[in-house]
Specification:
The chain is an alpha/beta fold and about 400 residues long. It folds into 2 domains: about 250 residues, Ribonuclease Z/Hydroxyacylglutathione hydrolase-like (Metallo-beta-lactamase, Chain A), CATH 3.60.15; about 100 residues, Lamin Tail domain (Immunoglobulin-like, Sandwich). Helix content is about 15%, strand content about 30%. It contains 8 helices and 25 strands. The strands form 5 sheets. It has an 8-stranded mixed β-sheet. A hairpin with a 4-residue loop joins strand 16 and strand 17. It is globular. The termini are far apart. The structure holds fe (ii) ion. Fe (ii) ion binds next to helix 3.
Length: about 400
């Protein structure tokens, strides 16, 4: 069935093919747009045999209606999607929580801003050996524009990426180009410790059908549900083929009301899956795959943050003042202030300390006077619109917030 499907899918579209007009006049040149050709399935994934026992942890971060997943497999570190621009504190938290200082690879499933938005900021803080994308895409410029010297590796279906001795990410899709880029999402399978995880990006029912018709084995234990759990993905036939026991949905119903749709959750439950939605965890779901293949899912447990809080967030002065209301010195290295309206982030430099009872001011480049620290922006706080300042610790926890005045 697989071979038949490959033959069916290859050569359907995309090759330069000078045509003729109906009246026999000037030939019409068909132009191939890179990334829109259907791809034949490589046999690489059929050649591997996962083996050995490995330490495996995955973090499914709460980054709103967006995807950001970290994996530590043995000594290697990986990220699948980078959330939105404002997810950067959470990405750093993911690295801290898994004890990672660099990554072996970043997979970007497709280039919607809720999957690639945080990549630029992440690459300003951390190194990675490669950025992996699919070959098929409507547009990879959003990765090309930020990757610098880091190689981008375009993956065809059937390709594999090794994550240590006896462990591989296997590329199951995309196979067929679809004008709706969600359906060009990179679909990855990870078989480790005798357990199978399937990461679906924003795959919708069209791509699900393509993979099923191509004869891909979609059976899994853990399913990263496609397209934020909306009802235009996770069809009943796809669910029958995947039969997960654990399902993770990256969603936030406040941001997008049809994400984590009740019909999808009901269908997953009916299929026997425990369902976890990232909006229900403060920071991340911490998933472990034991050497025996057992999957456990827990909320990340965090250290208690010091009692640091906002004193004021001034629109007119463009100045934030913080105080340490605790009785011990607070290390603010790697803490963040987020301006929700401006979508701007300030990261406290390493070595920033705030003594017990002390205050610390953070201005912008336009702020008069001598603030202790300066945000590298002319102004941050909107002069007329309401803005919400959020103080975030290096573990991604929201420590305090204040509406600008
Ligand atoms: Fe998305």
């Amino acid at each position: 069935m697989l071979l038949a499907a490959v033959m069916l899918l290859s050569g359907c579209r995309g090759e330069s093919d000078p045509g003729e007009t109906g009246d026999g006049t000037a030939p019409v040149e068909t132009v191939t747009i890179p990334g829109t050709e259907d791809r034949a399935v490589l046999g690489d994934y059929l050649e591997i045999t996962p083996h050995g026992e490995h330490d495996v942890r995955m973090l499914f971060l709460n980054v709103g209606k967006a995807d950001a997943i970290f994996l530590r497999i043995g000594e290697t570190g990986w990220m699948i999607d980078a959330g939105t621009v404002s997810a950067l504190p959470m990405l750093e938290a993911g690295m801290n929580l898994l004890g990672l200082s660099r990554l072996d690879g970043i997979f970007i499933t497709h280039t919607d801003s809720d999957h690639v938005g945080g990549l630029r900021g992440f690459l300003s803080l951390y190194e990675t050996d490669a950025i992996y994308t699919s070959t098929i895409s409507a547009d990879w410029n959003r990765v090309e524009g930020v990757r610098g010297e880091i190689p981008r590796v375009a993956l065809d279906p059937g390709a594999v990426v090794q994550a240590g001795e006896g462990v591989w990410f296997e590329v199951l899709g995309p196979i067929r180009y679809n004008p709706r880029d969600d359906n060009n999402s990179l679909v990855l399978r990870l078989r480790v410790n005798g357990s199978t995880s399937l990461f679906c990006g924003d795959m919708m029912t069209d791509e699900e059908k393509t993979l099923m018709y191509a004869g891909m084995n979609l059976d899994c234990d853990l399913l990263k549900v496609g397209h934020h759990g909306k009802k235009d993905a996770t069809s009943s036939s796809f669910l029958a083929e995947t039969s997960p026991s654990v399902a993770l949905i990256c969603a936030d119903k406040e941001e997008e009301s049809d994400s984590a749709h009740k019909s999808v959750i009901k269908a997953l439950n009916a299929a026997g899956a425990e369902v976890y939605i990232t909006e229900n965890t403060p920071v991340a779901y911490d998933v472990t795959v034991t050497p025996g293949g057992k999957i456990t899912v827990e909320d990340v447990s965090l250290p208690e943050p010091p009692d640091v809080r906002f004193v004021s967030v001034s629109k007119s002065d463009q100045l934030v003042v913080l105080e340490n209301a605790g009785d011990a010195q607070a290390d603010l290295s790697g803490w963040w202030i987020l301006s929700e309206t401006g979508n701007d982030l300030y990261r406290f430099p390493d070595g920033t300390e705030l003594e017990a009872g002390g205050t610390l001011s953070v201005g912008c480049t336009d702020t008069s006077g001598t603030p202790d620290l300066r945000w590298n922006e002319g102004k941050v706080w909107h002069k007329t619109k309401e803005d919400r300042a959020v103080l975030i610790d290096p573990w991604g926890a929201e420590v305090d917030f204040m509406v600008s005045q």
